[in-house]
Write a structure and sequence with these properties.
Strand order of the largest sheet: 4-3-2-1-5
Radius of gyration: 17 Å
Length: about 150
């Protein structure tokens, strides 16, 4: 429902900030009544969120630290029920490789209904053999981002 998307405008001063609607409007849910919308996984009954991983670590700086905190983040991610997909591109696709140190965390997320979408061009560029997720086109990643109510880039 487009009316649930966050309202965005150019900054027009303090008056405009006071008039704007809240940024996060929860999606009406029938899950509490024990009814799930048709075609939706149980994870999608909250706000549809997509996580973007465009790097093979979390943040920039020390690579070892970045990989360590990414593992911690991904282990804790299942507590956020509204995450529907993780889009991976550029060196982020390396996280889905057979020899990735976070394969267990990503596999667990995938088994819990989180779609892992890897940019096919990036997979080919880096020569990655996917151990989890699926390679897809940029159009498919854009569609995933478009239907998201919230996008978080790490």
């Amino acid at each position: 429902d487009p009316s649930l998307r966050p309202w965005v405008s150019e900054f027009k001063g303090a008056a405009a900030l006071q008039e704007r609607p809240p940024l996060c409007i929860p999606r009406p849910s029938t899950e509490s009544a024990g009814v799930r919308p048709p075609g939706k996984s149980p994870r999608l009954c909250g706000m549809n969120t997509v996580i973007v991983l465009n790097h093979d670590q979390m943040g920039y700086g020390d690579a070892e630290l970045g990989q360590k905190i990414l593992v911690t983040f991904l282990r804790k991610l299942p507590s956020l029920r509204e995450v529907s997909a993780i889009a991976l591109y550029n060196s982020g696709v390396k996280l889905l490789a057979v020899d990735t140190p976070i394969l267990a965390e990503l596999t667990m997320l995938e088994e819990n209904g989180v779609d892992l979408r890897a940019c096919g061009t990036c997979v080919n560029h880096y020569g990655v053999e996917l151990a989890a997720g699926e390679d897809c086109t940029m159009d498919q990643i854009i569609q995933e981002l478009d239907k998201a109510e919230k996008v978080v880039t790490l």
